[in-house]
Every structure is written in C-alpha cells, then in structure tokens.
Design a protein that fits this description.
The protein is mainly α. It has 15 helices and no strands. The longest helix has 38 residues.
Length: 399
C-alpha cells in the first residue's frame, strides 16, 4: 500500500492506540468501583445515546468522508454545524422533562457532532490533531469515571454518565477548534447528496441499531446484570476492533476517494487480508487464554463475561475483516445493496428478539444467535463488495 495510507494509518492508530490503552487500563478500576448491575444500567443509557448520535449526524459524516475535495468537505461540515446549533436549544428544552432523557439527549447531540467532525479531520488528513483529541478525551473520560461517585443523581450509574457527558463535550469543543476553516467560494447543494440521505444514512442508522441492539435487547429481556456482563464483553473486545478497524476504515475511505479503481482494489485486497490474519490470531489467543485473563483483569464478579465473549468475538472478528468492504461502498455504488443487507439481517435480529421475549430462552444462546446473524451479515456483504470491486477493476483494465 502507498506511503500515504501506511503513514496515515499509523498516525491515527497511534493516537487511538494510546487512547484505547488508557481505557483498557481503567477497566479493572471501573470494574471494581461499580457493581455489575450499575454498569448494565449505564450501558443501556450509553447505547441509547450513541444510537441517538447516529441519527443526529443526518448522514453528514458520509458526505464529508466522500467529498471530492477539501473545500466540499469543509462546506458540508459548516452546514452541519449550523443545523446542530439550531437544534441544540430545542432538543435540550424538550428533554428537560426527565433527568434520564436529558442526559441521553445531551450525550446524543455531542456524539453526533463528534462523528461528523472526526470524519472531517480524516478527510482533510489532520491525523496528528485527531490523535491528540483521542488521547485527551480518553484521559478525561477515564479519570472522571474512576473519580466520580455513582450516587451523584438519580441517573443510573451517574458517575459513569456524568463523566461521559463531560468528556464528549470537551471532545466536541476540541474538534471544532482544530478544524479551522478553508477559505473558498465553494457552494454545494444538499440535493446533490440524495443517495446519502436515501440509502447511506439509513444504512448507517441500521448499522448503529445493529451495534447497540445486543446490549439494549439483553437489558430489556434479561435485566441489569446480564446487560452489564454483555456490555463489559463488548467493551473489552471492542478495544482492538475500534483501534484497528476505525483507523483502517477512515484512511481507506479517504484513499478510495483519491485513487483509481485498480489502486483502490489493490488496497482493498491487501487491507482485507491483513485484517483477516490479525483477527484469526486474536481469536486464537482469546479462546485459549481469555477466561483466565478476564478473571484476573476484572475480578471474580465479572467471570460471567467470558461466557458471552466466546460468542461475541466471532462477530467482532468478522466485523473487523469487513471494514475495507464498508469503506468501498462509494466505489462500487452499492448503497442500495448496503441498505437492504442491513435491513434484512436487522429483521432476523428482531425475530430472534421476539422469540426470546416470549419464550424461556437462555441469555447466552440469545447473544450467540445475535452474534451469528451479525457475523453472517458482514460475510455476505463483504463477498458482494469483493465481486463488485473485482468486476470494476477488470472493466477499467486494472487487472
């Protein structure tokens, strides 16, 4: 792969890696400060908020990422900020009816802003700045989570919730301040991005629902304790996946936008194979040593997390391998395919949810089925994207 991709990947991954390392080091402290049930309540609140954040991007993160030039990305970023500032007072006023709702809405607003601005920094290649923001956010977030009392308010896991809101607020301010401005006379039109709003944004929403569905559904069916165990499993396994996967996705999306079909196909193959090798190695280590590792790291009360992790890790491994495929959606022009793929497998998840809701269905089997459906959806989509990438490359004389 090109020097730009390798250099950008390691600059983003280094900053994210330090941030993830800090989060990883804080997990044993948090696991001992808070009870499993409290963490389960917080996981539900956080999942609701992050899902709301996906809605509140309005698809502008996709517009920014796939902009043909820096000026267009800057134009889209400014349009989004105006919309966000206009919505902020109305959403906060509406949410003041309840403390729990207020925390969820406030966190959702900041989460949506952060997603769009992180996409912008990747698009304009401010990798070093983004790494600095990742590290600052992680320091503040984990320090506050370990410092604040769990009894600050009636919000479940208030120490965790307040820490998260403050951290996202600081992160949003930092991202806005370092994004700067690009003086140009560029004038775009939202109408040019109908495909984003009709397919890519709904697909992103469905993907977000799929990502947070396990915790929310387990919380609803099985209660706080199981939600805490599942959330801890997702959090621990998410450290390497978020570190490698998000860095690869962001850099590849930018590279695809600036490369020929044949160059993109070459990057796509190499990155997919590399992530596949890394995933298989990670799964092998976890299956062999994961149970002992979890008990030593978190304490005996979290031993049940491993039983859920053995199912979740297959889902996460396939998700990591599929990152280059999702970054390539704009090349193969398969926005409709991506949308219908997400919708189809979401329907399968809802079916399993309803089945578990009305029958005496074991929580471990439920998480196993959800993980299996999620993994299979990534496999199907990645295979379809590969075939399209190969066909495009051949038609352009790339191979």
């Amino acid at each position: 792969m090109s020097n730009m991709f390798i250099g950008g990947f390691f600059r983003v991954a280094t900053g994210a890696g330090v941030a993830q390392l800090l989060s990883f080091l804080a997990i044993p402290v948090i696991a001992r400060l808070y009870e499993v049930d409290t963490v389960g309540q917080y996981n539900a609140l956080f999942s609701y908020s992050m899902l709301g954040g996906v809605f509140l991007t309005f698809g502008f993160n996709r517009i920014v990422s796939n902009a043909v030039c820096v000026e267009e990305a800057d134009w889209a970023r400014k349009i989004y900020l105006k919309i966000w500032l206009w919505l902020l007072p109305f959403t906060l006023l509406f949410s003041m009816v309840d403390e729990y709702v207020f925390v969820c809405v406030l966190l959702s607003m900041f989460a949506g802003l952060v997603v769009v601005y992180e996409s912008f920094l990747l698009r304009v290649k401010k990798f070093g700045s983004q790494s600095g923001v990742h590290i600052t956010f992680s320091v503040i977030n984990n320090f506050l989570k370990c410092s604040l009392s769990a009894g600050l308010s009636s919000v479940p896991g208030a120490g965790l919730s307040v820490a998260t809101v403050i951290s996202y607020f600081v992160k949003a301010i930092l991202l806005i301040s370092i994004s700067g401005g690009f003086k140009s006379d560029f004038s775009g039109s939202i109408a040019n991005y109908r495909n984003v709003f009709f397919y890519r944004f709904p697909q992103a929403v469905l993907a977000g629902i799929g990502a947070y569905f396990p915790v929310l559904s387990v919380y609803y069916i099985y209660g706080d304790h199981e939600a805490g165990l599942v959330g801890m499993s997702l959090g621990l396994l998410g450290v390497p996946v978020l570190l490698v996967g998000n860095a690869a996705f962001g850099i590849l999306q930018t590279k695809y936008a600036e490369s020929t079909i044949s160059e993109s196909f070459d990057s796509y193959l190499k990155s997919t194979v590399s992530l596949m090798v890394a995933s298989f190695f990670g799964v092998f280590l976890f299956v062999g040593f994961g149970e002992v590792f979890l008990v030593l790291l978190l304490g005996d009360k979290w031993a049940g997390s491993y039983d859920f992790s053995v199912y979740i890790i297959s889902w996460y491994a396939v998700m990591l391998i599929s990152k280059p495929s999702y970054a390539a959606v704009s090349i193969v022009s398969k926005d409709r395919l991506s949308f219908w793929n997400e919708l189809l497998f979401f329907v399968f998840k809802v079916f399993v949810f309803v089945f578990a809701l009305f029958l005496d269905f074991d929580a471990h089997y439920y998480v196993g089925f959800i993980s299996l459906i999620s993994a299979f959806s990534y496999i199907v989509f990645s295979c379809l994207v590969y075939l399209e990438m190969k066909r495009f490359s051949r038609s352009k004389g790339g191979i």
